[in-house]
Amino acid sequence: MPEQSHISKLTLTNFRNYASLTIDLSPGAVVFSGDNGAGKTNLLEAISLLTPGRGLRRAPYADVAREGGDGGFALHARLDGPDGQVEIGTGITGGEAAGEGGRKVRINGAPARSADAMLEWLRVVWLTPAMDGLFPGPAADRRRFLDRLVLAIDPGHGQRALDYEKAMRGRNRLLTDGSRDGGWFEAIEMQMAETGVAIAAARAELVRLLAAMIDRLPSSGPFPQADIRLSGDLEEQVANAPAVDVEERYRAALAEGRERDRAAGRTLDGPHRSDLLVRHRPKAMPAELCSTGEQKALLVGIVLSHARLTGEMSGMTPILLLDEIAAHLDAGRRAALFSILEELNCQAFMTGTDAALFSSLRGRAQFLTVDHGTVGPTEGT
Ligand SMILES: Nc1ncnc2c1ncn2[C@@H]1O[C@H](COP(=O)(O)OP(=O)(O)OP(=O)(O)O)[C@@H](O)[C@H]1O
């Protein structure tokens, strides 16, 4: 199995409850344990910002910067991989420059054009307790989850999504302003059709590949097989027709739908309305009707299958952030999770209030205790 990149050193400055912290990290499993509020999730959040987007809490940067600091924060990671070392830095400047502008990214000290540059070096995927309600919850959360899975395989997906959203916001503004400027509408709708169909095609491809990967894995494993399907007009169309035809149809539908959308005050059709439908295959039941533990096992199974897929496709198994992962998983499933992570050969950060839940990993993982702004080796591990 090829060597995977891993974060070997992580430095946080004025990030959440950390004034200044540097930790050396091992490849493979890393367990952060500590009391409630000690700062375990904050560490995962820091790592989640090593990929484009707002991180696993989707928090405004003003909340991320340490209270009592200068309003800025900085993260720095050293990555060790098959091609040597790379240094990734990101953050926002404090003082007058602080605000909601984009965060800066540096690769080996040189400013990167966008946060997408980090995807060349690492992919990061996470599961948090907030995602326990993913299946019964709003479609927007499932779309976001899906898009993060797509991004790990297809680094162009983030920019596409941003371009689509920007165009759609422009169209919505025209609608609510009561504009009848046909030229403006046409230009924006053309952009929405191009980017919207590209988004739908990338999602459809991911779901096709992921479903095939799930089928390849043993049906009797500890994490139940999921049947995954996309619901969305564009996603269904791109599976059956050339993208240019779907683009043209979507563009025409947007033009025809202007009056209806004007009445609604927003764009009603498009990939921003799609959904990821998941069923528990062994129980032949929609995921949202399963027990909390069954839903968690289903979600873990999807993320592990996706990690395997990403590794096979890009040679880059994602770094996994598994917050409070031991909750809801029985001892058998925990042990199975740990051995799959080892088999995947990826760096996986796991948190829990009690290191004992990870005791079967003793000798095979790095155990760190988090204690209100400091991190050190866990005693007895
Ligand atoms: N901007 C900030 N500045 C300083 N401290 C912050 C900031 N944002 C959050 N905190 C502190 O960080 C702590 C929460 O950390 P975190 O969520 O990582 O805890 P945790 O160890 O994961 O806890 P739990 O086990 O309860 O989930 C809280 O004490 C909170 O007050």
From TrEMBL:
Name of the protein described by the UniProt record: DNA replication and repair protein RecF
GO molecular function annotations of the record: ATP binding; single-stranded DNA binding
Role this protein plays: The RecF protein is involved in DNA metabolism; it is required for DNA replication and normal SOS inducibility. RecF binds preferentially to single-stranded, linear DNA. It also seems to bind ATP.
Entry similarity comment: Belongs to the RecF family.
Keywords: ATP-binding, Cytoplasm, DNA damage, DNA repair, DNA replication, DNA-binding, Nucleotide-binding, SOS response
Annotated binding of ATP, by residue: G34, D35, N36, G37, A38, G39, K40, T41
Transmembrane segments: none
Organism: Mesorhizobium neociceri
UniProt xrefs under CDD domains: ABC_RecF
Domain AAA+ ATPase positions: 26-371
GO biological process terms, semicolon-separated: DNA replication; DNA synthesis involved in DNA repair; double-strand break repair; SOS response
Principal subcellular localization: cytoplasm
Cellular localization per UniProt: Cytoplasm
GO cellular component: cytoplasm
